[in-house]
Amino acid sequence: MAAPPTEHEILDVNRRYHDVAAETYDSKWGISFGEIGHQQVLGKITKLLGPSPGPFAHSLEIGSGTGYFSLNLLQTGVIERATCTDISPGMLVTLEQNAKDLGLEVETAACDAAELPFEDGTFDLVLGHAVLHHLPDLDQAFREFHRVLKPGGLLFFAGEPSRQGDKLAAIPKQAAVKAAPLWRKALRASSAPTHHGAPDEDEHALESVVDVHAFVPADLTRHATAGGFTDVKVQGEELLANWFGWFNRTLEASADPKDIPWGWIQYAYRGYILLQRVDRTLLEPRLPPRIFYNLMLAARKPAA
Fold it and tell me: Residue 116: which of 153, 79, 143 has the closest Cα?
């Protein structure tokens, strides 16, 4: 049996994977920096930070990717100055171009979350989206988050996979794999091109290696508490919307993108938004966080 990858190997694979993915990341995941993006990001952050979060004078985003969270929060006034970090220089190149296109100024740094190149007590908010599950040394990372926050500063992470929710998500994925041939026939869509020899071949080769963790809520609570944080809150989000989204995404991945009609794309988007509202109003307040696909975390560094 092969030895598990070392911390250095995990970081290297994450760097290479996200460098390869950077150019097409926004289109692949439907990233929006307009009104849709504003609503999605605010919808997440207000769940744990209240209906009118901020404004935060200076934020630090961990694993910022192409800028989905920070650029939308800058545009909505939740943060006033943004520093964005990522282990992938390629992602930061795309983020800087996105910021330029939007007329926004950001500071960037390519670095490991466990070794942040900032002075103690620099930031009012440390945040991230779908990043903690990539980090091999979470205990050290949380100590770094605590160190660079000002006393009384806030921590916020969203989009972290839950262990049980990830297992439940396999159900719609498997169902979609079985349904895909009939779906493509109904839409008169060709099968997706094979990846051998394609520009994204490296991305697909690395994709299964970059996800290091899936969490139960107690995991996130423990890491935050051990890092010195108080007022720790963990909440689950997206159950029905996630099942719907993974079912449709799995179908779409089986087809040539140019053959997927606009009507289907609108159906998938509008259905996802509708089920997000059902999750938010009916399920998230009533069901245990562990069964949702995504977990969210908020905490505070004690005031001096």
Answer: 143
pLDDT of the residue at 209? 66
pTM over 0.85: yes
d(CA 97, CA 225): 37
- Rounded alpha-carbon distances, angstroms, from residue 192 to 28, 186, 255, 273, 290: 14, 15, 4, 26, 34
28-31: which pairs have CB atoms within 8 A and are 24 or more residues apart?
Answer: 30/269, 31/66, 31/68
Q: Is 192 left (phi over 0), alpha (psi -120 to 50) or beta?
A: beta
At 215 the three-state DSSP class reads strand
Distance between CA 280 and CA 104 in Å, rounded? Answer: 31
Sequence letter at residue 88 = S
Q: What is the DSSP letter of 293?
A: S
Q: Where are the beta strands (DSSP E) in 117-168?
A: 123-129, 149-161
CA 126 from centre of chain? 14
- The pLDDT, as a whole number, for residue 199 is 46
State the helix-helix crossing angle for 240-253 and 163-187, rounded to 10 degrees: 50
Q: Which residues pair with 154 in a beta bridge?
A: 125, 300
Give phi and psi for 167, each to the nearest 5. Answer: -65, -40
Q: Give the pLDDT confidence score for residue 298 in this predicted structure.
A: 99
Q: What domains sit in the chain, N to C, each tagged with a CATH number? A: 7-162+199-239+288-300 (3.40.50.150)
- pLDDT given at position 197: 46
Residue 80 CB contacts under 8 Å (≥ 6 apart), including other chains = 55, 56, 57, 58, 74
- Kindly give the parts of the chain with pLDDT less than 50: 196-199
**Count of positions (residues) in the chain:** 304
Q: Left, alpha or beta for 277 (phi > 0: left; psi -120 to 50: alpha)?
A: alpha
Spatial neighbors of 105 by CB under 8 A, at least 6 apart, are 99
